[in-house]
Amino acid sequence: MTLDIDPVQSDRSRDALTAAHLYYLQDLTMDAIARELHTSRSSVSRLLSHARETGLVDIQIKSPLDAPSHLEQQLEARFRIEAHVVPVPDSASDVDRLERVALSVARILGQYFDSNMTMGIAWGSTMNAISRHVTPKQTHNSQIVQLNGAGNMRTTGLGYASEILGRFGTAFGAHIQQFPVPAFFDDPATKKALWRERSISRLIDMQATMDIALFGLGSPFSGVISRVYAGGYLEKAEFDALSAAQVVGDVATVFYRADGSTDGIALNERSTGPEFTVLRRTPRRICVVAGRSKLASLRGALAARLITDLFVDESTARALVEAS
Amino acid sequence: MTLDIDPVQSDRSRDALTAAHLYYLQDLTMDAIARELHTSRSSVSRLLSHARETGLVDIQIKSPLDAPSHLEQQLEARFRIEAHVVPVPDSASDVDRLERVALSVARILGQYFDSNMTMGIAWGSTMNAISRHVTPKQTHNSQIVQLNGAGNMRTTGLGYASEILGRFGTAFGAHIQQFPVPAFFDDPATKKALWRERSISRLIDMQATMDIALFGLGSPFSGVISRVYAGGYLEKAEFDALSAAQVVGDVATVFYRADGSTDGIALNERSTGPEFTVLRRTPRRICVVAGRSKLASLRGALAARLITDLFVDESTARALVEAS
DNA sequence: AACCGGATTGAACATACGTGCAAGGAGCCG
DNA sequence: CGGCTCCTTGCACGTATGTTCAATCCGGTT
């Protein structure tokens, strides 16, 4: 057994690297590059795609700091967060919105995550969308930790959640830490007991000391039903209880009201997501929101001070600013 | 008088920014972007060019660290420098070589230079070529300092050198410090006297404390005549003296031999470039070389330990490694 | 108000680029 | 040694992008 890299792979990458050099740093046409590399133009096109996909080429966009859009400035001033407004035409559907915001986030994420870091991630449609596009970036000694369990009455949830987790993991070359518990326990006592198990508490500790948290928002009572409510995670009675408690949203299956409060929301006792008091210790907490249906939920999360960095589509951002 | 930015400029930049967002982060086609921005596709193409040219979009290429080319590794091991080999086909002319290496350097330079830094730059065909392509990057409180005088019998040299200097200055938003003296004094005493003038000594001090030096190499006795020898800077007699002293090259009009030594080279007493003992204190000293005609000169500069970072075209790099 | 550069715009054209496809390997059984 | 699959390659085609040019707009001047 040897440590050599697959020579074919390495050949390919070496070529991709020179191709990228010639294309992006020397402005040669793919045709010219093809001649220098003794191959066809189409292969060069493919090499360059490969270079971009694998993060060999890194394209960043830098706001000249003096020109964050008016919207971003307002959000930053009003909520004390770093805001990133993703331009999406007002006519776009909510699906488009999510897809486009997710794509933007996926491309930028590498600027936040680095070697020796631990990032906690939730799961759900937002995280799923992001995971499908993350641009790879090689890191060392870094960890991706699942924030909340994903099991329900029908499945252990390991498939869906770990797919998401896995995509982040391979993109960053990070170890992944799954959280093999249901989204909600039936009995709070089970949770307490499990939390004392070393295998689980190790994970809880990692969550408590992570450098970055990345999450979307659940919004139980708005048009688009978040995955948590659709997938058999909650019974009708539980759902009604949330409604009665005036819940407006959740982060990693921990629920909150419009004012950001969580006290007396019974379901949280059985939820596996990190308590907000813990979450708030994470230095960078990136929230991704797309679509106006999540507006109430977003207001609540802001009130709960769960967010340090917000990625949001333009029209939702506008709505957020206007109503305040 | 107001501090507002030209609203037209700012409009343009804002659009360029969103266009860049949509194009590079969301993979929209220019056509789609045109519709969102209510303009024509060609305008979007222009906006994107603008965004790239002004450094709004920053494209980096990251060697996965495990894959610096064989050549780069050898150079780094042998000379204790950071090497960047620029791929250029062996068939390319020396002019092409220079142009392509310069373009690469111009694109990468922003990764080295930042706010609050001082960079010293020489002048000559290499620096000229680089200056014509530097990708802008906004910095604050940074300085560009001219390393050596550019005047000669016919002109003050302020035009040519300051054009170069100016391009770097505007690209980085840096203050520029010209060096209004000839390349060589006739009398060493004049130099000594001037060096005591506060206006000049201030500049010398800046050179002594700069963070980065950027220079090409002169190679008096090889095919392509460096600007120093062509432009009326040296008399026949001086040229002969250099030859007799076995000089192989110069950095900022300070001459050295193949072994890197400078002792007893009379012309250096009258040269306005920084002494090597001073130059070597600069933490990062970036040398840009293109063309095998500069090989001897490059060997000397390496022997003189003037270089910490080398940018060189592929075939010159190969020649350098092979002959050692 | 009429006039004049100079900059900006969209249409049209000319390139350059991405991708489906069929052909040609390279490895892997049977 | 076929015969199989899976992967890579170059070609051909359609689309996306860069660029020229004439028309238009704008700010300043007479």
TrEMBL record, chains A, B:
SUPFAM superfamilies: NagB/RpiA/CoA transferase-like. Residues 67-321 form the Sugar-binding domain. The keyword Transcription applies. It holds the Pfam family Sugar-bind. GO terms for molecular function: DNA binding. Keywords: DNA-binding, Transcription, Transcription regulation. It comes from the Bacteria. PANTHER family: TRANSCRIPTIONAL REGULATOR LSRR (PTHR34294:SF1), TRANSCRIPTIONAL REGULATOR-RELATED (PTHR34294). Belongs to the SorC transcriptional regulatory family. This is DNA-binding transcriptional regulator LsrR, DeoR family. It comes from Cryobacterium levicorallinum.
